[in-house]
Amino acid sequence: MSDSPHNSLASTETFQPRATLRYTSAVGIQAAGVGAVVSAVQNALSSHNHGAFGVFTRTGGTIGFFGAMGATFALTESVVANTREKDDALNGAAGGCAAGFLAGIRARSLPVAIISCTVLGAAMGTFDYGGKNIAGGGSLSQEEKRDNFFKPTSLRPDFFSKQERSS
């Protein structure tokens, strides 16, 4: 297991402790913003007589729930990273598990909580292990990505004949 390139990279880098409260509050506020959008969509798609305030009165629990899940994820990930003094995929897996468990508790079902913990933990752990990039190839810099995207003119196919270009 120590032969893995991910483990050898983590051991050579020095750990930077995370500011737990700052990270938790930032992620919690961002997640609450996403929850507000979801709540607005829920409010728009349902029929009721509460008007625009239905975003807060009828479906406002969604805002708080999303914020709580984001804050729980960030807090757990940060505490685990600071305790272990390592920045690796296990931190994200623990945060995902805690957030998933919270989702299951909202559903008032222990089996759902355990399954949600497993699924979100595995998803976040895999995402972090893959370089925290959905597309993969997270080790390339922005300049390398641009160079790979734009082909040099010598490699571009010549679609026009010389005669068409001259006219």
TrEMBL record:
Its main location: mitochondrion. Keywords: Membrane, Mitochondrion, Mitochondrion inner membrane, Transmembrane, Transmembrane helix. One of its GO terms (cellular component) is respiratory chain complex I. It is found in: Mitochondrion inner membrane. GO terms for biological process: mitochondrial electron transport, NADH to ubiquinone. This is NADH dehydrogenase [ubiquinone] 1 alpha subcomplex subunit 11. InterPro entries: NDUFA11. It is a multi-pass membrane protein. Residues 139-167 are annotated as: Disordered.
